[in-house]
Design brief:
alpha/beta, Metallo-beta-lactamase, Chain A, 8 helices, six-stranded mixed beta sheet, 2 domains
């Protein structure tokens, strides 16, 4: 899975960084998913090869503006660009209320079905998209907020070579067809099913993307077996101490400690306060 950060600033954009939005692109696919959609996200998408026509799902972690103010514009632009395929929209119930209010007050209209899925339902029953299975867990941020786990659905198959040799199946093109799951007739006239000889070549990769959250331990169960965690680190501990509050956010130290104790090999920090200015020549996201 590939990640493309479209915005990493917390609360408001800076000259160098836009507010929260993250594109997830399954390997070797043109389909993609969007996690959060802060104001200006569609402008950020213009810097990428990603197309709204290929967008499969939008997952909103919570309804604070820096995570969802770009959603109505993106939906409207997708419709005007000719999108007609249904689009899945996952989030707290307030996300649907927000879109309905915008439609009622501004005349927003789009020519495709918006399939609303409440994030809370993904806690018990995962959502199956074309390339990933999505699960969720609630976080602590003052409003209903979620983290989403994305696990690959289709892992390329390996081949049980030992079993084939033990059964006297001669190596050759037949092995390739069995690896692809086909049913074949071998040189001895036996009917062989590819499903009987396939092995997973590796474990399915698992990625967790969290919304704003002041209690990293809430992610413990969702992060079991995760390869990568993407989490906000709005402040440093020094800033939190000086402010006297974390405003429902985490620090780099807190989430780093959690990831280390949970044995997560990859941690990506995002959603930094605008007080942290990028160096000249740095990323423009």
């Amino acid at each position: 899975m590939q990640l493309r950060f479209l915005g990493t600033s917390a609360g408001v954009p800076t000259r160098a960084r836009n507010v929260s939005a993250l594109a997830l692109i399954p390997e070797r696919q043109r389909r993609w998913m969007l996690i959060d959609c802060g104001e200006g996200t569609q402008h950020q998408l213009m810097r990428t090869p990603l197309s709204a026509a290929r967008l499969e799902a939008v997952l909103i972690t919570h309804v604070h503006g820096d995570h969802c103010y770009g959603l109505p514009g993106l939906l409207a632009s997708a419709s005007m660009a000719g999108r007609r395929a249904p689009l899945t929209l996952v989030g707290p119930p307030a996300v649907r209320e927000y879109i309905e209010a915008i439609k009622a007050t501004t005349g927003l209209f789009f020519d495709f079905e918006l399939i609303h899925v409440e994030a809370s339902t993904l806690v018990e029953a995962p959502l199956k998209l074309a390339d990933v299975i999505v699960r969720a867990t609630p976080l602590s941020h003052g409003v209903e907020c979620y983290a989403y786990a994305f696990e690959e659905r289709h892992v390329e198959a390996g081949l049980n070579v030992g079993k084939l040799r033990a059964e006297g199946v001669t190596a050759g093109p037949l092995w390739g067809r069995l690896q692809r799951g086909e049913t074949v007739i071998d040189e001895q006239g036996r009917k062989l099913s590819g499903a009987d000889y396939q092995l997973p070549s590796r474990d399915a990769r698992r990625l967790v993307v969290a919304g704003d959250n002041d209690t990293p331990d809430l992610l413990a169960e969702l992060c079991q077996g995760a390869d990568v965690l993407v989490h906000e680190a709005t402040y440093t501990e020094a800033v939190i101490e000086r402010q006297g509050t974390d405003h429902g956010h985490s620090s780099a130290a807190r989430i780093g400690t959690f990831a280390a104790e949970a044995g997560i090999s990859g941690l990506i920090l995002t959603h930094f306060s605008p007080r942290y200015v990028s160096r000249p020549g740095g990323a423009l996201y």
